[in-house]
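User: Second chain of the day. Same drill as before.
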Amino acid sequence: MSREEVVVLDCWCSSCAMRVKIALAEKGVEFECKDQNLAEKGSSLLLEMNPIHKLVPVLIHNGKPICESLLIVEYIDQVWTHSSPLLPTDPYLRSQARFWGQFVDNKIYEGAKKVWRTKGEEEEKAKKEFIENLKILEGVINNQQFFGGDTLGYIDIALIPIAPWFYAFEKFGNFSIEASCPKIVTWAKRCMEKSSVSGSLPDFDKFYYSFAFDIKKVLGLD
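Assistant: Same format as last time:
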């Protein structure tokens, strides 16, 4: 591998991999995506580069792997410093951004899984908790353009790959994110206006019909 060759081990439907691609695009870093077939446990390269979890994404920079999406975003921010930082430079604000990044992982993404993996009363409970946590984030963004202010940053990158799931939830029926959390939906639309985001997220129809809908069928929840 040459000095500045950058490779992302990817899967088109992986929200975590989307984070990495957005961060690289925001920094203007050229990179190559190598799509992995996770149904077949990925490639030998994935098993070599992430032998512990055997999951995407993996960033390979100068031949060295970095795993776990939020850690990768921090790495990208620290290595490519020629453009605006993704994380605040102030130590306190940086700690707060990391806190909300963990909140997004533990409450929003885990909550989304409960919504589409359940049905009946359990699904209704999951929907309620999911909306409650999104409302917490509405309080964090308040009336700002992005979570960090006027520019897309770490928390935005952590959260925006949830947007295809918003669309899928609407398609599943009886679940409107916009009706309950209009600020979050407005924020998501604003993020999608950026080429770094729109170019890194899949087509929403493809995501629904080729991934979310199929998962529902496999789980017997359609």
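The domain at 91-218 is CATH 1.20.1050.10 (Glutathione S-transferase Yfyf (Class Pi); Chain A, domain 2).

User: Great, on to the next one.
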